[in-house]
Specification:
- The protein is mainly beta.
- The protein contains no helices and 6 strands.
- It has a two-stranded antiparallel ribbon. A two-stranded antiparallel sheet has the order 3-4.
- InterPro entries: MSP1_EGF_1 (IPR024730).
- Keywords: Merozoite.
- Pfam families: EGF_MSP1_1 (PF12946).
Length: 95
């Protein structure tokens, strides 16, 4: 689960298909979930995400991997968070 201290307090402006993260200093930031890309202040479906664009939607500190799409795996991008922030939030959109 998500660490409660990482949950955003102000959720009014978070669009659909986005995840919000609260930093230690109280700043809050939303980013589009995997498989979505930001357009203005919304998240729209991204039919061809890849790691060369915006690190695939992964956190800038995460490793991005283009996943093989098959019947067991519908994900196109795999984000792997690394030390010193190895915990993945929203599948690695934040670390």
């Amino acid at each position: 689960g998500v660490d409660p201290k990482r949950v955003c307090v102000d959720t009014r402006d978070i669009p659909k298909n986005a995840g919000c993260f609260r930093y230690d200093d109280g700043r809050e930031e939303w980013r589009c979930l995997l498989g979505f890309k930001r357009e203005n202040n919304t998240c729209v479906e991204d039919n061809s995400p890849n790691c060369n664009t915006n690190n695939g939607g992964c956190d800038t500190t995460a490793d991005c991997q283009n996943a093989e799409r098959n019947e067991e795996n519908s994900k196109k991008i795999i984000c792997t968070c690394k030390e010193p922030t190895p915990n993945a939030y929203y599948e690695g959109v934040f670390c």
